[in-house]
DNA sequence: TTGAGGTTTCCTGTTT
DNA sequence: TAAACAGGAAACCTCA
């Protein structure tokens, strides 16, 4: 079984030690012959004095090569916090803390990680990096996001308000709207949402999908595409997505055992990696890359054969019919027989009844595995055979204590009557009715014996994890029952504008697990000011966010 | 089956 | 004096 569901808040030590380090090791091992050559003296970049506004231009200079970067981290603000386990100045910059200078001279690895500073031309992309084939994050948007979240920026309070309070704006990215819309009506967001959900359901690592090619398509454009077009967009999984779309639309497509073999072999390779030996992992990746190349060649051949033998006639007509169908003045369903995806969806659209939308919203579907609605609604799974009613999962999504508190702070029925913000910009909140909050928490966990004493004990376990911190009863907040919720996890999807994603309702919860790039933000309230830490990294294939190799069975 | 994560429960002692 | 706070220890439950 492949586990891809990360904890929303990742421990920084685990994160750094296990993932970034391993990623660096894999990269550097592969680059070792190049390291023997004398590296040119890299320049130093100044990011300004402690407490000064963040100078995005220097960061911007680092970002254009992000697509092939193996690891990149920036610490903004002050405080001088150093990520444990990261010892070279090359992959860790402490911005705003003395000495307020970034120097790549401290490590020979720096030119590899930051070729824009070093000598990019002399270092070709490694097979490891090629195999990950990461999409590009818009650097200007990323810089804007970083800048906006940085102390000293006038945008910071506004943005943090959005993150914490989740205002009902129309600009939020809707990743579940595809469930209740006809595919022909899907927006680009819907397409992305469907792909993310599908990849999650199939256990495909999201970062392996060439999302950028699909992320700019509307549903109508997607339906216009044939199998080859899907494959062109993503040679690895395009065909699979085409079939998933066909399945979603209840369109029958000839079975293709070779594709199953491709996927099976891919998963076998993915799951057969060694657990400890880094070098062996690297060799496995190289081997896997070769195997995948062979498999993809076979897949391409198959696709071509199918196109020639089965769809030669229908492809052209499919496109023509679709173009006609998309023309609002010339829709003719009778001509769509050769356009399986579109014909089906248009017929479905044509026959939408008053109870059609609810059929998407109710319980498991029987028509193709799109049953995660029940998961989203938190339906209990794995009810025991012995008939005993067990407590609700402590690990169910949205069922963690901090999520409960966060939700309570968002819910007008509990905020401000039960909990209320003291300072949303700083994440400081106050429990107004402790026993009522405990009762609500108990209801959420099916635990009638919950008390505030127990609830507060659970909250104190967050101190170590830096999710909550106690607020001193002197100074700004002399009252009791005041806590500081200090962690915000922000996930960026490939090729999507971070500024849009930052407004997404799920981001403060970090509930978007399968993305290739992650911005991970920690706000730490310190004496009189706070710092923001961003760690931007690329997850190595075969590893989850916690630095564990994916489980195999 | 096992270990990890996230509580839950109980407890003692301290502070407000 | 009650309520809140702090934290140790062990049990519990679920997931991977």
Content of β-strand: 5-15%
Q: Judging from the principal axes of the Cα atoms, what is the shape? A: globular
Given helix and strand content, the structural type is: alpha+beta
- As a percent range, the share of helical residues equals 40-55%
Low-pLDDT sequence parts:
1-173, 255-395, 487-553
Number of helices: 21
Q: How many strands, which pairing sense, and closed or not: the largest β-sheet?
A: 5 strands, mixed
- Overall number of structural domains: 3
Distance between the termini: 6 Å
The average pLDDT score comes to 45
Number of strands: 11
Strand order of the largest sheet: 3-2-11-10-9
Q: How large, in whole angstroms, is the Cα Rg?
A: 25 Å
How would you describe what is shown here?
By secondary structure, this protein is an alpha+beta fold. The protein has 3 domains: 12-167 and 495-538, no CATH class; 177-254 and 310-376; 401-485, Arc Repressor Mutant, subunit A (Orthogonal Bundle), CATH 1.10.10.10. It has helices at residues 12-35, 56-62, 110-113, 127-132, 139-148, 156-165, 188-202, 211-214, 219-224, 227-233, 238-248, 257-271, 278-309, 312-326, 340-350, 356-361, 372-376, 401-410, 434-444, 452-465, 498-501, and strands at residues 44-46, 71-76, 93-94, 101-103, 419-423, 428-431, 468-470, 482-485, 487-492, 517-525, 530-538. The strands form 3 sheets. It has a 5-stranded mixed sheet with strand order 3-2-11-10-9, with helices on one face. The model is unreliable at 1-173, 255-395 and 487-553 (pLDDT under 50). It binds a DNA duplex (16 and 16 nucleotides) through residues 1, 3, 5, 7, 382, 390-391, 393-396, 400-401, 434, 445, 447, 449-450, 452-454, 456-458, 460-461, 463, 470, 473, 480-481, 548, 550-551, 553. Residues 165-252 form the PNT domain. Pfam families: Ets, SAM_PNT. One of its GO terms (biological process) is cell differentiation.
